[in-house]
Specification:
Helices cover 47% and strands 16% of the residues. The protein contains 10 helices and 9 strands. It has helices at residues 33-47, 64-74, 89-99, 119-127, 145-161, 178-185, 194-201, 224-238, 241-269, 276-309, and strands spanning 20-26, 51-57, 78-82, 104-107, 132-140, 170-177, 205-212, 315-317, 328-330. Residues 1-13 and 324-332 have low confidence and may be disordered. The structure holds uridine-5'-diphosphate and magnesium ion. Uridine-5'-diphosphate (UDP) binds next to strand 1 and helix 3.
Length: 332
């Protein structure tokens, strides 16, 4: 089955669009959508001349699609997008971004945990020159303390390992400029860890502190199993550390093995009794260590192949002055 990522076409951005697009992935959000539409529309009308709200139904099993199509029929500012099946939040978001045409794009969850009323403040920061203004949570009302703690630890570990820092306590709630949206669409990776991809891009990125509200209605679509998958995607997408681990492990085991083997050798040379276990252990550790080292080297190559196969743009030009230069993403 074709995934929407194949349909991503940054050229759609060439068409003139509204000042603002709001993009929200929706999975089984029938109870929330009317209120979401009301609050987001009110927030948009108050601050921008033209806007569109792109709502992506990520293969919901409840009445989300019929609610969405009704809203889209009544309100010409709403674009409803339906995916063929549940693709997961990141790909649903990518599909929404590929459809939206706004000069600026607000990425927001459909469950009203991210307050659309922050829009004026987000826009003001972008007016002052930021390309990305991301919501950073101050406090999470109504959330399981264990989950909050796990998230806090996870982001700190991720930041240690990640090649480019990913801001802590942030979700996908953010205002991005058109060029950031286009670069995001030019990244063809399938396991998308959107916030990591955005921080990798550079440009000026600013936080906006806010208090995250509890879900307006319905249940979280991210049980622990899915969060674990997200954590894995994040670690693998943001760093090439896992293969390096084999290398480091190999190095330490080789060192330990060498010390043991040398001790045995020295004892033998001095004519002292050599405990049999030391020699055997040393030999085994040496062999194991060397194997791990070789694996680590292979992993290093694998990591590079992986990085290359991600097909990310090699560099991003922020601005060029004069001539017929066109700033934007440059692909291989
Ligand atoms: N979502 C989605 N597809 C999925 C899971 C979630 O489009 O497979 C959407 C969901 O409708 C919501 C957003 O992603 O708009 C965040 O999901 P949720 O609120 O369940 O996550 P949490 O806030 O609990 O982390
Ligand atoms: Mg939520």
């Amino acid at each position: 089955m074709a995934e929407p990522i194949d349909q991503l076409d940054p050229t759609t951005a060439a068409h003139p669009g509204p000042a603002l697009s709001v993009v929200a992935p929706c999975y089984n959000e029938e109870e929330v959508l009317p209120e979401f539409h009301r609050r987001v529309s009110a927030a948009c009308r108050a601050v921008v001349a033209s806007y569109e709200i792109v709502l992506v139904d990520d293969g919901s099993t409840d009445a989300t699609w019929s609610v969405l199509s009704r809203i889209a029929k009544d309100d010409p500012c709403v674009v409803a997008v339906k995916l063929s099946r549940n693709h997961g939040q990141a790909l649903a978001l990518a599909a929404g971004l590929s459809v939206c045409r706004g000069e600026r794009v607000l990425v927001i969850d459909a469950d009203l945990q991210d307050p659309p009323e922050l829009l004026p403040e987000l826009l003001a920061r972008m007016d002052r020159g930021a390309d990305v203004v991301y919501g950073q949570r101050r406090r999470r009302a109504g959330e399981n303390p264990l989950k909050v703690w796990a998230a806090a630890v996870f982001y700190r570990v991720l930041n240690r390992l990640s090649d480019t820092p990913v801001p802590v306590d942030t979700g996908d709630f953010r205002l991005i400029s058109r060029r950031v949206c286009d670069v995001l669409l030019a990244m063809p990776e399938r396991h998308r860890f959107t916030r990591g991809m955005v921080s990798w891009m550079g440009f000026r990125q600013e936080p906006l502190l806010f208090d995250r509200a509890p879900r307006f209605a319905g249940r979280t679509k991210w049980p622990f199993r899915r969060r674990r998958r997200l954590a894995r995607d994040a670690l693998i997408a943001c760093s090439t550390w896992p293969p390096k681990l084999a290398y480091l492990l190999g190095l330490s085991v080789t060192l330990a093995g060498s010390v043991l083997a040398l001790t045995a050798l020295l004892a033998w040379a001095l004519g002292r009794p050599v405990p049999g276990a030391v020699g055997i252990l040393g030999g085994v550790a040496l062999l194991g260590g060397v194997q791990l080292l070789v694996l680590g080297v292979l992993g290093e190559y694998l990591g590079r192949i992986y990085e290359q196969s991600r097909g990310r743009p090699l560099f991003i030009i922020e601005a060029i002055q004069g001539g017929r230069a066109q700033p934007g993403a440059v692909r291989e």
